[in-house]
Design brief:
Largest sheet: 5 strands, mixed
Number of strands: 5
Low-confidence stretches: 154-177
Shape: elongated
Number of helices: 2
Distance between the termini: 49 Å
CATH superfamily: SecB-like
Order of helices and strands: EEEEHEH
Number of domains: 1
CATH topology: Bacterial Protein-export protein SecB
CATH architecture: Roll
Length: 177
Amino acid sequence: MQLSPLQLLEYTFDGVSVVPVEGYQADPAFAPGLVFFPGKLAMSADTGLALLDEKEKYSDFGVKLTLRVGPKEDAQAPYNIQVSVRGIVRMHLTQVDGQGEERRVRALVNGASLLYGAVREMVSTVTSRSAHGPLLLPSLNFQDLASHKPDEVAPPALPSSAPAKRKSPVARAKAKA
């Protein structure tokens, strides 16, 4: 086991919407709690990438993922879902000729994968107490992002690239006084 050259430094959710589909009837062929059959889901994602900082041995990127999930036409699914999440990833590679593009591609493909894991867990948590029961989204592969140019994400809209210094409850109380 070894550390990955890509590290997720932080992430935040911009929005989480999980709305039960009215009239949904569970398919008795699938046990509740399992991954929902992906053939019945209409899934789409938008991604964005912004270079935030570049050093000789690493680059920091802002990554954005917006996922939309609902029933396919003529199919039933329990929820309409839209989740937007942003994160900062650090790609460790020595800066040499041609590695700038490799850093960008790895940051996008693997950054989107890391953020999708957070989205998948968030949806599972929210739906565990929702009308139609828990929904575990299927695993996805973001390798197709390697061949297309992502939308640029405006760096000011991303979380700060510096680690946030959290105030203790005592310090917050003093600041309010």
